[in-house]
Every structure is written in structure tokens, then in C-alpha cells.
Request: fold
Amino acid sequence: MYKHLLILCMVLLAAHIGMAQPAAKENIKTTKQATANSLKLYPNPAKTYTNIYVDWVQAQPFSIIVYDMQYNTQLTEIKVGTRKSYQYALDVTQLPNGKYKITIKGNSLMEEVLTVNR
Reply:
């Protein structure tokens, strides 16, 4: 009798712990997602195009600017209205092989290096 009661208590305890942990992990993910702006380039290195993915914590107007690595030449600028998330396919067929800075300028700055390699 005690053995069955002990097994039942262990099963209930394991089930309770198992249910509580995923909820805590989900809360952590949500908190992390809500506190960081992000910029991603794919593919990188690029041959003909790269997708630029922009995510802001709060919606805002911004620009996507492509520079050479020395910031001497602004190669292109795309002005975007107020958005929280945005995706843009950047044509790189006219850019020579090399590295370029992709700068997102809104209420704050985000940068990534893009490599063009054919």
C-alpha cells in the first residue's frame, strides 16, 4: 500500500515539475525577444541578392543604407516608413566582390557586414 502511494506521489511530483519548467522557459524567450532589436542578412555571403530582415522592439521609421567598408561611399539608401518588422531583398549584382556595411538607421543604429562573393 505504501509502495503504491509513494509511486503515485513521485509520478505526480514529476508531472508537476515537467509542466512548470516549459512555462518558465517560454517566459524567458518572450522577455528576450521583447528587449532586443535585430538585423539579419541571408544569404551571407551573397552572389546575386541578400535578404535583409529588420526587427524592432517598437515600430519606427528607418533607413537601410549600404556603405563600402571605409564609409566613404554610400552605395544605396532605402527609406522605410514606420514598421516593427521588415524584409527587403537587396540586389547585389552591381556590387563588386568584397565586403560592405549594411546599416539600419532608426531611433538607434544596427550594422552587419555583407560579403559579396561570386
User: Anything to note?
Assistant: The chain has two domains: 1-35, 36-116. The first helix runs from residue 2 to 34. The first strand starts at residue 38 and ends at 42. The helical segments are 2-34.
